[in-house]
Each structure stands twice: as structure tokens, then as C-alpha cells.
Amino acid sequence: MFRAALVVGLLSHVASGYNYIPGIALKDYEKGAPVGPIKVNSLFSHEELVSLDFYSVKYCAPNKTTLVQGAKDEKLGEVIWGDRIAPSLYKAKMMIDQKCVPVKCSPGQNEVTPGDLARFERRIRHGYRGTFVLDNLPVVSNGSWVYNAACPTGKQTYDTHTRGFALGVPQSCIGTTTHIHNHLALHIHANQQENGLWIIVGFYVVPHSIDHVHEDACDENFKIADKHPPVTTMETTKKIIWSYSVTWHESNIPWSNRWDAYLNLAFSNRNARVHWLGIVNSSLIILCFATVVAMIMIRALRLDIMGGDPDEMEEQNEEVGWKLVHGDVFRIPEYPRLLAILIGTGLQLLGMATLVFTFAILGFLSPANRGGLLTASILLFVLMSIMNGYSTAYVLITFNLFSWKPIFAAALAFPGAMLLAWVITEVVIVSTTPSYNSAPVVFNSLYMFALWIGVSFPLVILGASFGNKMSPLVPPVKINAVQRVVPERSWYLETWFLVLVPGLVPFGAAFIELRFILSSMWQGMVYYVFGFLALTAVTVLIVSIEVTIVIVYFLLVFEEHRWWWKAFVIPGGMGIHFFLYSLYYAQTQLKLESTLSLFIYSQIMLVFSGALYIAIGTIGVLSGYAFMRIIYGSIKVD
Q1: What are the CB-based long-range contacts (under 8 Å, 24+) for 403-409?
Q2: 64, 430, 529, 629: least surrounded by Cβ within 10 Å?
Q3: Do residues 347 and 391 make contact, with C-beta atoms less than 8 angstroms apart?
Q4: H or E stretch covering 250
Q5: 623 pLDDT above the threshold of 70
């Protein structure tokens, strides 16, 4: 108990704090020196879910040589998440304001055809946003109301504090046409150090639609506050003058805290009270079930464990059932090899999650390390394959059913299903989205396949070779030669009920954090309160154990000795409820219009929910087995 309290105390201490990945070097500039360079990232949308190259619409771009040489080598997690960082033609000098600067386009680049305008209109209608990156800081919008919250059509369009900038104002707001944001007002915050040099601590943008008469109209005499005609998509062929302004702001934010402003944009990061409310809610659930478990251990088992009057046995009929099935509870379950594979996969997932939480709390998975969280999760999952092989082999040894065929299945089943789902998604995207860049997808598909076959698969075999050498667990009681007939039981102990209902308890304990995680995944919010997430994971672990013990005990009371799979599905049902809630979330919080977006969302959430089901179900079956060994190993049976 002291160790558990110590762990909870340490997690509580860091729950609301932010840490940054070590090794990100401070970058400073002299006044007037070129900064950056400013780079572009993918176009993204919270409605379409398919990230596109920034230059998939006709923005002015550097020449091909500059694009190739200046392109960033993305990590695996960045590619999967859709990041494509490339050079741009936007430039700034430290602490030098610029009223209006035309983008230096190559000849013909700012000439747009009806097809180009139609592509812009389609991207704007689907809510796509552009993204800049400066000194590893993503640009964020200013949180302003489009048209001052008074669209001519009556629709209110709010550009929330979110990453990137809207490509334009959709026709649904204006009513007649679509406006293209061709002028970007960049606001950069800088802090002067003691050595007189400056560092960049903030990067913001306000997009505008301004139809410049000619490039000379965009100079130091330009006033953005004046009324300017917008750039629309109504004309057939036209010339768009792309421009930007740069305004510098002095700031006292230090380098180590420059990400706080971005993290605090998300409600989940700036409101610790909501997280503590979820922790308190989970603690109450834990307390209630802990009381029930204590009553079971003290009241129902005290005659054999703690001593008592044997004559009381006749007055406690509920105790008869669980003792009568002592010779069957350790009987090998149905589909034992499948159960062994699921337990091995579940322990692999749990091991990965534990390491990810550890690295995240220590600050090694900061959002400054773009794509680091997803990359680390994939690599740690691969490395934890050795635990999968070891535990699968050990369970098979315990069942006296060891063979290499289930080990191979454990190495291929879940990782293969995830890789197949990802490849199918990418193939569908490539086949339905002509402007989607498939080159990184092909390379990373081969890379992940190599990780799976070249690293994960051998680690599973290696772990199984160790597990095969272990001594099997010996049941504390003898198994009967003839299986006991299970009497008819109440409806609330039927399998369908156990699959659907008990999982609501661990889901309720994690509901608040799961809501924030979905916002981070699908609405561009940065989630970085891993301390609270770790606390929630601990409460889910405890609640899952308690719920499993309570329900398994009642199954035994009613002489139901086939508990193995039931112990797996009892807490595992949390994955089902998470998937159902994700569908509700998509319906109420997201604006997914296309079939492709619905397909991508459903497939990703199905994989996440399946992984959650297997991981939590593994906790259930292991806690149920430990409970069996405790109660049947502590009594004397004739």
C-alpha cells in the first residue's frame, strides 16, 4: 500500500506540469538577421481527415531543387500523422516589421485557372488549413470571429485557437462566392536574452483576403485596416498576388516555456480541476468496489482463511457454490491457444503503454518533438514483442499445450492486422485522392513491414524460447476427471450481459481523459497532461481488477466454473463502450461529411478500441487467475 501511495503521489506531483524533451538547442539571432527559415507543413482538415501537401493547391513554391534539398526527413510518426514539412518563400528578419511583402513567385505561378480556383474552393469548403513552422513552433490562429460573427448567410464561423490558418472563407458564410486568404499577417513574439540576442517564443497568424491591384500596392505604405476587395473564386483565369506582413512583439517568455502558450490553448491542459474531478470520480468507484472485495475476502472466506465455527457453514449457503467447483475452476478453458495469444498480445500492449507513460512523464515525448509520441509507441510495441512471446509460451506451458504454431500466430495476428488496416486505409486514400503524395507511404509501409518481420517476429520467437523453459504453474487443487455440469443461472450472469455491462465501470473511470484524448486526435488540440493520464490508467487498472474479482466470485457462487473467458470480457467491454462513444463523438463534435473520412475514422477507432479491449481483458483474466489461486490455495478441500 505504501508503494502504491508513493506512486500515486509522484504522479500527482507531475500531473499538471509540463516537461520538455532534453536536447532541443536554443536558437538565437541578432537584430536584423534572417530567422527560420519559415517552412510549410501539410494542409489538414478536421472534416476530411486526409492531410495533403501544402503545394497541392496552387501556392507559390520554391523551385524543385530547393524543395528536395530543404524537405525535412520526417520520422515514422510524422508520416503516419500526415506531416510533410517543406521550404517556403516567406521570409522574416529579427525585430524588423514589414507592412506588406509580395511573395516572390516564379513566372506563371500566381496565374490560376478555373481548375485551380475550383480546387481552392473545394479545399476551403472542406475546412482545410495551412500550416507554417518557425524554429519548430507551429503557427496558430488568433481566435477571431470570421466576419465578426456576422456572416451574410447568418452562419457563425469561429476560427478557434488552433494550429494553422483557414485557406479562406467558405461560400456557406458569404452566400455568393468563396474568398481566398492570400495575405497572411504574421505576428512573431521574441525575447531578448542577456547577451543581447533574440529568441523566438511565439508564432501567430491572421489570414486576410486582399485583391491587390498590382504588386506595387503591397509596400510599406500598405494599411491592412483599410477596406480592400477580396480575392474570390468567381473569375475564370486570374492573377493572385500572394503577400504577407510581419509584426514583431517583445515577450518575456523564456525559451523553456515557449510551448506553454500552445499547450494552454487546449482545455484539457489548462483546466486541472476537470482532471481532478475525474480522478475523484474514479477513486469513489475504486472505494466502492474495494469495499465489496473486502467483504468477499473477509466474510465469505473467513471460515477457512481466518478461522471460524464450521457449524456456520449451513447458515451461509452462498459459500457452498464456490467450494463445490474447486475441482473445475483450473480446468483448461475453451480455445486455450487463442486465449494464450490474447494474453500475450495484451501484455505486449500493457508493457508498451507503461513505457510510453514513463517517457512522457519524464518529458521525453514533448510536442516539440513532432511525431515523437507515435514513433515511440510503435518502436516500444515492437520491442515489447519479447514479452508477447514469453507470456504466450508460459500460458501454453501452464495449459500443457505448448507448440510453435500458436507462437507464430501471436507474432503475426495483431501486428499484421494493424499493418493491414493501415495499408488498406492508405490504398483507399491514394486511389480516391489524386493530389495525395503516396511516396512516403510506400517507403514507410516497407519500413514497418521490415520492423514487423525483421525485429518483432524474432523477438516473439526469442521470448517464447525463454518461456518454454519455465516451470508451469501448478493448480493449488486437483482437477476432477469429469467436468461438473453447470446449473442454470440468472440472466445477469449470462455471457452477453457480462460482455456489455461490466465494462461500463472502467469506462466511466476513464471517460473524462478519453474525451480529451479524442479531442487531441481529431480536433487538433495538444494533449500533454500525461500525469493525469497515468493516474487515470492506474485507476482503470484497479477498477478492472476489482470488477473482475467481484463478478467472478458471484459466478463461482452459482457454480459457474467456466470463468476464463468471462474474466477476459468483463473488463474488456470497456473497449466496446469506447468505440460506441467514439461514434457518438464523431456525430456530435466532428463534421465528417465524406465516406472516406468516415471510413478512416471508424477504422482507426476500431483498431484503438480493439487494442484497449485486449489490454484490459488481459488484466481481467490475470486478476481472475490470481484470485482463484488465493482463495483455493488458502482453504482445505476434501
Answers
A1: 404/464, 405/337, 406/337, 406/340, 406/341, 407/460, 407/461, 407/464, 409/337, 409/341
A2: 64
A3: yes
A4: strand 243-250
A5: yes
Q: Residue type for 2, please? A: F
Nine-digit cell at 522? 481529431
Q: How far apart are alpha carbons 244 and 184 in whole angstroms?
A: 5
Q: Is 560 exposed, middle or buried (0-12, 13-18, 19+ CB in 10 A)?
A: buried
Helix (H, G, I), strand (E, B) or coil at 563: coil
| pLDDT over threshold 70, residue 85 | yes
- State the maximum Cα–Cα separation within the chain, in Å, rounded to a whole number: 103
Give me the half-sphere count of Cα atoms (radius 13 Å) on the Cβ side of residue 560.
19
What pairs with residue 227 in β-bridges? none
Q: Which of 94-98, 172-176, 304-308 has the lowest mean pLDDT?
A: 304-308
Determine if residue 269 is left, alpha or beta; phi over 0 gives left, psi from -120 to 50 gives alpha, anything else beta.
Answer: alpha
* Span 98-119, pLDDT tens digits: 989 999 988 888 888 888 899 9
Helix or strand holding residue 474 (H, E):
none
- Strand (E) or helix (H) holding 192: strand 183-192
Torsion angles phi and psi, residue 478, rounded to 5: -75, 140
3-state DSSP call for residue 141? strand
- Please state the φ and ψ torsions of residue 130, each to the nearest 5 degrees: -90, 160
Distance CA(407)–CA(447), nearest Å, equals 23
Distance CA 244, CA 134 (A): 15
Which residues 6+ apart lie within 8 Å of 414 measured at CB?
345, 348, 611, 614
Lowest-pLDDT range of 9-23, 96-110, 376-390, 501-515: 9-23
HEC string of 616-634 equals HHHHHHHHHHHHHHHHHHC
Q: What is the pTM of this model?
A: 0.84
Cβ atoms 447, 76 nearer than 8 A: yes
Grid cell digits, residue 239 = 492573377
Q: Is 147 left (phi over 0), alpha (psi -120 to 50) or beta?
A: left
What does residue 159 show for φ and ψ, rounded to 5 degrees?
A: -90, 90
Which tens digits make up the pLDDT trace of 290-325? 777 777 666 555 554 444 554 554 444 444 567 788
Cell of 158: 469561429
What length is written for the chain? Answer: 638
Q: Which residues of 574-591 are buried (b: 16+ CB within 10 A; e: fewer)?
A: bbbbbbebbeebbeeebe
Least confident span in 363-367, 371-375, 424-428, 477-481:
363-367
pLDDT for position 19: 39
324 sits in which H/E element: helix 318-324
Give residue-wise pLDDT tens across range 37-51. 999 998 988 888 888
Grid coordinates of 584: 457518438
Strand duo 243-250 + 129-134: pairing: unpaired
DSSP string, 258-285: TTHHHHTTSHHHH-HHHHHHHHHHHHHH
Alpha carbons 169 and 123: distance in angstroms, whole number: 11
Enumerate residues 6+ apart whose C-beta is below 8 A from 136: 24, 368, 370
Taking alpha carbons only, the member of 9, 1, 16, 5 closest to residue 532 is: 16
Residue 30 main-chain phi, psi, to 5 deg: -80, 155
Please, what is the Cα angle at 351 between 349 and 356, to 5 degrees? 95
Are 74 and 100 contacting, i.e. CB atoms less than 8 angstroms apart? Answer: no
Three-state SS at 357? helix
